[in-house]
Amino acid sequence: MKKKLTKIKNDARLAWHSLLFGLKAADTAMQSQVSGEDGIENHQQVTPNGVFADMLEQKVTKEVEETRDKYYRVLREADKYDATNMKIVGNISENGDEQEEFEFVGNVRKKTKADFMKHATVYETPDTKLILIQDVIQIASHSNFEAYVPTGLYDYDVNIDIERDFIPRFKIEKFAKKVVVRKGDNPERSYVDIYLPTEASQFGKIDAILISNLFTIYNEKNFRGDIVNFDKISWCTERAWNCGDAHSFAYDDIHPVDIIVFDGNFVITYDCHVIDEARDLAKKYKTEDLDKKYEEEAPKKKEIDLFTIQRHIDKMEKKNKSEIDLDNISDTGLRIS
């Protein structure tokens, strides 16, 4: 029995490493450069007539719509759970005699209401309601949400999009640490606070000059400069407080109204007109056909992992029942009927 279980573990480990090696090879092939008369270009290797080939060609087929809908459903479901204390640990002997052993440490738990009510210390006022806190570093770079992809030239070093009709001396979106949305009495307008550092990095020269300019603005309360003025701001939520992932926030008709120093940050407050506020980008991609498939097609097999197999074996042995025919279990899928 021990030899059979060891064989399953080895086969599963081989399949896992083969998958990772295959993914690396595929990524290398996709990103490799090929020469041509017109210069250098990237080439992609995908299955002909497959759903990913349709995506690359920007075809909107039924399969593409369902694949996109599945992605957002998984995103929503995963957001309900906290797996921050989960990690994979592995051990291998220095002389290589012993085989690698990997295991999961920690657990996954469903988030509670208290988890969603926690938030970092931010500037608040009695006459406004806190709507959102978004750490800029948490926003996914190069967001692939269709409604969030900006048009025209875009600076891929930043995760929030600020539009201007001029070139500023400093783009504060490159230095922003977080954005906070507060709501007043007017439903059509909101206050957007941008948090900027008050201390330069160890080797920073540009950010030191920016901070010097912000100190001048703070002391003089003069917002006529090019640094703090812009026409539009937008972002897509990622691990934000009080809002799920993939929600759009966008504002225009923007006026800076205040700058303070709070909790080691410059906080610039803007009075903004609301274009989007917590609009669910995944909602428009939901398909009724996928709902029907989930309702009508019940899974015919149950997928289990190696630890489930071991627990099942121990339980069967304790009850003096017949052993599981491990040789008939799929090596790659680890499935039982």
Question: In short, what is this structure?
Answer:
Among the domains are: 51-86 and 101-118, no CATH class; 121-283, no CATH class. 28% of the residues lie in helices and 26% in strands. The chain contains seven helices and 15 strands.
Overview of this structure, please?
With 337 residues, the chain is α+β, with helices and mostly antiparallel strands. Among the domains are: 51-86 and 101-118, no CATH class; 121-283, no CATH class. 28% of the residues lie in helices and 26% in strands. It has 7 helices and 15 strands. It has helices at 2-31, 51-56, 62-78, 113-117, 206-220, 288-296, 306-318, and strands at residues 33-36, 39-42, 81-82, 87-91, 101-105, 109-110, 129-135, 161-163, 178-183, 189-197, 232-236, 247-262, 265-280, 302-303, 335-336. The strands form 5 sheets. Strands 7-9-10-13-12-11-8 form a 7-stranded antiparallel beta sheet. The longest helix is centred in the first third of the chain and has 30 residues, at 2-31. It is globular, with a radius of gyration of 26 Å. Residues 29-42, 141-156, 321-326 and 328-337 have low confidence and may be disordered.
